[in-house]
Amino acid sequence: MLNYTIRRLLQAVPLLIFISIILFTILHYMPGGPLAPYMQNPHITAADIARLKHNFGLDRPVWIQYVSWLGKYVMGDWGWSTMNSTTVREAIGERLPATLELMGISYAVAIGLGLLMGILAAVRPYSLIDYFVTTFAFFGFSMPVFWLALMLQMMFSVHGIHWQAFGYALDFNLPSAGATSTEGGSFSDRVAHLVLPVMTLALLQLANWSRFTRASMQEVLHTEYMRTAAAKGLPFGRILFKHGLKNALMPVVTITALALPGLFSGAIVTESIFAWPGMGRLFYTALQQQDFSLLMAFLVISAVLVVVFNLVADLCYGWLDPRVKYD
Prior knowledge:
Layout: H1 2-28, H2 36-39, H3 46-56, H4 62-74, E1 80-81, E2 86-87, H5 88-123, H6 128-142, H7 145-159, E3 161-165, E4 168-172, H8 187-221, H9 224-231, H10 236-259, H11 262-265, H12 268-273, H13 279-289, H14 292-320
Antiparallel strand pairs: 1-2, 3-4
Helix pairs in contact: 1-14, 5-6, 5-8, 6-8, 7-8, 8-10, 9-10, 10-14
């Protein structure tokens, strides 16, 4: 497995270089190019533009600019963010914790509930639970994320929850935007701000993963080794989780691994609607303001994470299925 991992990592190097060349070329030739933020100044002159090009090395051939950028990037110099007036590493470092918090909790909720709902639907096919999971999955597939976010804001923030029964009253409104109400914020305030964006992201992922789990688990339940284990008198719970679930996770691992790079890149639409100070919102703002250095760093890191987590998924196959050999 070690040789396979090293070989895959070495194969990924030219792929990532090729991806970075494409990204660098596209961003370099977009309207305004790397000087786009400076071009928005109505008082800028041709002499100012020439001086900026010389200072930033933009008067050199594109391939030389790329080689210079690549060398600095590999050494950890990701450039200067014109949007944030700070280094790109500092700009990303400020936003990354908020995205890891939001995306990590959302994925944990979606994976936990998705597996549970998929297993229950597979064990009781064509039952009420199965119909509920299937209907919920189709609803989640077809639901626009911006619509769901706005509906949750209207239900739980604008109108709020006002329930009264058996002499008890429940009356509350969840925050509709931001990470905290005040600077720093208490733990309960932080949790309250997390509820709606976590619900938005988790519900969409939950619909996807529950459907895949159901289909994969149903296929595994009808295999010969599952019937053999049942014939030996093993408890159903042990058969289901020890023998069935491990093999049913093969396709689920793939879609989960492909979704994990979102832990870095965040959710652009959700973070924008809920004004969450994360990476998705940072990328959207950088795209609007054409922050060349920040966009390059963000996109290249995302590409690296996609390659790495694809490798992680492949390695997980060997743990889930001993028949998979790498050497």
